[in-house]
Structure formats: C-alpha cells, structure tokens
Design a protein that fits this description.
The chain is α+β, with helices and mostly antiparallel strands. Helix content is 46%, strand content 17%. β4, α4 (127-136) and β5 (144-147) form a beta-alpha-beta unit.
C-alpha cells in the first residue's frame, strides 16, 4: 500500500513537470510570435527602401549637438542601426563593420565616405549611452558618428531606411542591415548579415566615387539566413546565432521521464501482485 501511494506521488510529480515544461513555453512562444517579425515582410520592406531619398531628419551626436542627415550629403554614407542595451549582436556586427571600414579607408582614404550608427531604442539610446558604447568597443574611426534620434522621429527614420524591428522578451528582433547612400542621400544598396565582407561595401562605394551608377545587387540564395530575426538565439559558445531547440528537447525529456515512471509503476505493480509474492515466498 505504501509503495502504491509512493508511486502515485511520483506520477503526480512527473505530470507536473511535463505540464510545467509545456505551459510557460507555450505562453512565451505566443508572446514572441505576437511581438516578433516576419522575415519575408522585413526583407521586402528593406528592399523597397532601395532608391528612396532619405528625409532630412535631425538627430543628436555623442555630445548632444543636433546633426541633420543632409549634412552628410556630398559623399557616400553608410548607415547602421544598433541599440546600446545589446551585448551580443550589435557589438559583433559593429566590430565587423569597423574592420571593413578600416580596410576601405586604407584604400579610399579616411575622408571619402562617412559612417553613421543610429541608436533606435529610445529613450535608452541617448547621446551619453552611444558615446559609452563607442568608447567601450573602441570605435574611433574618422568620419564615423553615433547619432541619437528622438522618440518622435525614430519611426519615420526607420521607415525611410526600411529598417524593421520589434521588441521581444530578450531585447529586439531586427534586420541586420547596413544602408549605403549616395551623395544625394538616396539609398543605393542594402547590405545584410552579421559579418560584412569588404567587397560588399567596397565595390558599390568605388562605383559611387567614380561617378558610376551602382549596379543592382543580386538577391543571394542565403540572404534570408543572414538576417537575424525571429526564432534565433545567441550562442555564447560559438559567438553566433542558432535556432532555439530548447522547447522540443525539454518536451521530449519530460515525456521520456513520464514514460519511464509508467514503466517503473507497471514493474512495481507486477512484483507486488499476490501471486508474485507467494511465488517469491515458495522460492525462498
């Protein structure tokens, strides 16, 4: 009797574990779906910005001084979007951009094009926060500024650049893109991915500096895999992003535990049957 009651307790615990694994994650998954991004939609909006002339928005630099985007006209301009509360993706992509910019400045010179990083998480991405971000990751290239928009203008700026983002429990889902603008402030190329190759930026900048039209980018087969949005989590062991298989693994573990408890209960029930006990007694 005592054994049966104990086994029932084990089964109750197993059921609670299985339900505990399912319910919280189901709620989180629903919330993430509501707040996350659709990759096809995000890429479409980003590509629709190519050929668009960006509005003359006013932002603040790291010292809190107003800067108009039109002040960057006359030279090619690279624009990236970051948020300073990110300790994984934004630093990684910004360092990749930094290495590319350093290489391109050696080829074209330090004053042939400008770079701007815009903090989109307002009001947290203040001029002070952006200044600390740049200092922490030692980004001090000539002609590279970090700009902070106001809460009332960030939506219009993001729309102009085709930059799509949405809050999630872990931070933000957003497209990793660098926009290349010509001397007139028109977007001529969107460069995607966590790691930016110098040729992806260098070739169109070379065309702009030579007065040639920038050739349309061919849509790479793997472009969707290089956009870090919905259904990816950061893996600190590899320093990259991967699909999150935690939920199915935990569900499988809970179901396995439940099945093992059923088998254990069945074996205990067989060994405690009256016939089994009397047979054991005769064999002694």
């Amino acid at each position: 009797m005592h054994t049966t009651a104990l086994l029932r307790g084990y089964l109750a615990v197993a059921l609670c574990l299985v339900m505990g694994l399912l319910l919280p994650h189901s709620s989180q998954a629903a919330s993430h779906t509501d707040m996350g991004l659709d990759r096809d939609m995000a890429l479409r909006l980003s590509q629709e910005a190519v050929g668009r002339k960006v509005g003359d928005h006013t932002l603040l630099d790291r010292e809190g001084r107003p800067v108009r985007l039109s002040s960057y006209r006359g030279k090619p301009l690279l624009v990236s979007f970051i948020y300073t509360g990110c300790f994984q993706v934004c630093p990684t992509t910004t360092r990749s951009l930094q290495e590319t910019v350093q290489g391109l400045q050696k080829v074209f010179g330090t004053s042939q094009f400008n770079v701007v990083s815009i903090g989109f998480n307002q009001p947290d991405d203040s001029p002070v926060a952006l200044k600390a971000f740049a200092a922490q990751y030692q980004i001090n290239q000539p002609s590279w500024e970090f700009l902070s928009p106001s809460m009332s203008t960030i939506g219009a700026i993001a729309k102009d650049f085709g930059f799509v983002y949405a809050p999630t429990p872990a931070g933000f889902d957003h497209v990793l893109q660098v926009s290349l603008l010509d001397a007139d402030g028109r977007i001529v190329r969107q460069i995607y991915g966590e790691s930016i190759k110098p040729a992806e930026i260098g070739e169109p900048i070379k065309q702009l500096l030579s007065g040639m039209p920038v050739e349309p980018a061919t849509m790479l087969d793997d472009v969707m895999d290089r956009i870090r949005i919905l259904c990816t989590v950061y893996d600190p062991k590899t320093g990259s992003y991967r699909v999150d298989y935690t939920l199915p693994i935990q569900i499988a573990g809970g179901v396995t535990f439940f099945i093992l408890m059923l088998v254990f209960f069945f074996n205990e029930w067989r060994s405690n049957r009256p016939g089994a006990r009397s047979k054991g007694a005769r064999s002694v």
